[in-house]
Amino acid sequence: MANQKHMHPMSGDRVETNAVYKSQYGYEIELRAGETFPMDPQLGSVEYEMAALSYPEGPDDVHGDRTAAAQAHVPVSAANEEKAERKQVQALQHRLHRGNR
């Protein structure tokens, strides 16, 4: 332990990497670069450790949706509706986080 020079981030520190972080008490949260590590409501300042990397969502590919729909024998209009619904969910999440993502 004495040779370990790396310190885990604490509440209030800025997030450097998009990832899922786990507190020392088992609480997991997905954070994006630029956000700050939250404080625990009951324990106050806690230490976080990276549990898993977050991978960015792929770009909206209209042709990919059409190809996937054709392979699954789903009408293209249904694929377009699913894409529109996905955009609505992303917009609601954006508003829920007040633009801080």
SSE blueprint and pairings:
Blueprint: E1 19-23, E2 28-31, E3 48-53, H1 62-71, H2 76-96
Antiparallel strand pairs: 1-2, 1-3
Helix pairs in contact: 1-2
Region (Disordered): 77-101
Please describe the biggest sheet, giving its number of strands, its sense, and whether it closes into a barrel.
3 strands, antiparallel
Query: What Rg do the Cα atoms give?
Result: 19 Å
Q: What is the tally of helical segments?
A: 2
Portion in beta strands:
5-15%
Q: For this entry, what is the oligomeric state of its chains?
A: single chain
Helical content stands at 25-40%
Number of domains: 2
Widest sheet: strand ordering? 2-1-3
Query: Total number of β-strand segments?
Result: 3
Summary of the model, kept short:
It is built from two helices and three strands. It is of the alpha+beta class and 101 residues long.
Account of the 3D structure:
The chain is of the alpha+beta class. The chain has two domains: 56 residues, no CATH class; 45 residues. It has a three-stranded antiparallel β-sheet with strand order 2-1-3, with no helix packed on it. The protein is elongated and about 60 Å long. 5% of the residues are buried. The model has no long low-confidence stretch (mean pLDDT 76).
